[in-house]
Amino acid sequence: MSVRTRVAPSPTGTPHLGTAYIALFNKAYAEQQGGDFILRIEDSDTVRSSKQSEVDILDALKWLDLDWDEGPDIGGSRGPYRVSERLTHYEAHANELIQAGGAFTCFCSQERLDELRREQQRQGETPKYDGHCLALSESEVQRRIDEGESHVVRLRVPDSGDCTFTDRIRGEITIPWQQVDMQVLVKSDGFPTYHLCATVDDHLMGITHILRGEEWISSCPKHVLIYDYFGWQFQELFHLPLLRNKDQSKMSKRKNPTGINYYRDRGYLPEALLNYLATMGWSMPDESEQFSYAQLTEKLDLTRISPRGPVFDVEKLDWLNGCYIRDLPDEELRTRFSSWAGNSANLEKIVSMLKERTERFDQVLTQVDYLIGERKPIDKEDLMQPPLSEEDVVKILDFAARTLECITTWRSDEIGVALRHTAEICDYKVRDFVAPLFVALSGRKVALPLFDSIEVLGLELTRARLRSAIDILGGISNKKLKRLDKEWTTLTQS
RNA sequence: GUCCCCUUCGUCUAGUGGCCCAGGACACUGGGUUUUCAUCCCAGCAACAGGGGUUCGACUCCCCUAGGGGACGCCA
Fold first, then answer.
1. Could you confirm whether A376 is annotated as catalytic?
2. What is the ipTM of this complex?
3. Which of A246, A253, A376, A480 is catalytic?
């Protein structure tokens, strides 16, 4: 049987490095085995999914040259490749599951479930569905559905015994059924949850090997159950380790730039980034550090992947990227560099910012240094301008980051409105509020207009610079962070 | 809290019972090449979490402890 692998990102936000990491191994393995690599869009969360996000993910993966054999944009024999376009499949399978006794209809209200969860947590128990609707008769279920009562479909889970499955990287894993919740499979809006659509689609699409993040291990029993009810053949399972922050926690945007586009915009070469990702949990048999995608597919052995979560170390990525740059022939480097510099969507914006304050072209570079390159190291003195205390400045930098986090349309005017609003609710003069931001972002006290600069820099880079400014002031302790969290919540809710 | 996973230099890793008083790479330190810087070259620093077993022999196998991580949503 021909190998088929897949990556199934959900289009909720900016393309994530983790997606690239998982996609890389899936694609490399499929290619090595002469199989196919499939891209499926998991847009089952109707609230958070967006078309834009899907487009961004496809673009980001293409930039990395991680293209697919079947996918939403190019189709394929087992399509469609968006969850939202496969609803009839899930409905049919959910019904079949109910008929077979593998699932049941549940009418419990959100309030009842919240209360139940609170109570269980108070008792120190693992929050779990209590089986309230399990005993409903078929006729009652039908009656309530006919009456239009809101309902979901839940997975029926054995109440004793263990579930054992094999992860090909870790070996046999056993989880007690007691520990497994009666997961919602179909939401009240009729959309499937991940557990239903992933299992049904993986089967229907003929997926043979599942390579995904480690965070899925604990939901495997649910998937095993569904496969068993249908009598389907389970895939080979490989749970790749989670990429980590420096402090070993799961890589998160708060502590690290996690967006693929951030790395593209910083001028990393896609092949270098891919190479680096490939060294996370994997090593070439000859221990070489620099290797191409082709070499990876030749040598890849999934069972040699380390289960231990690797820290994403930008310094080593920088070194590797430097190696790739040095290896490029001059002519190609020139092409690549100018396409990086010139194709920047921001060029237009930068030019218009400069127009008013430039008399000669040779004045341009000194003004835009921090927009197109690294900013100067921050002088702590510059950051601390009267009348603000150090505590004020840290708070401003942190709250500015939080504000930007919430911006829906990344445009200077929106950014300005939001930041001014934050200044106001915190009771700072806009002038005072904005001063440390200039320094944090540009490394200088005088810079081009702030809101425009932020638009050009983008969220991730802005966040990274704000964070590094905070670090210069000694960082934020956990205790302090909690206090800021609280203050932020109070301010933004009123 | 419950369950699951993980544990070799600061970081990425090699190591599948003797080849290991543990090898490579990044970072760091020192030296050399270079008009400067970078590159490049050389050298140095630095780890088997702890405790019990099993074995003639354990980084490698088993158990316990500790630490880290993940999951516990009508998110994926």
1. no
2. 0.95
3. A253
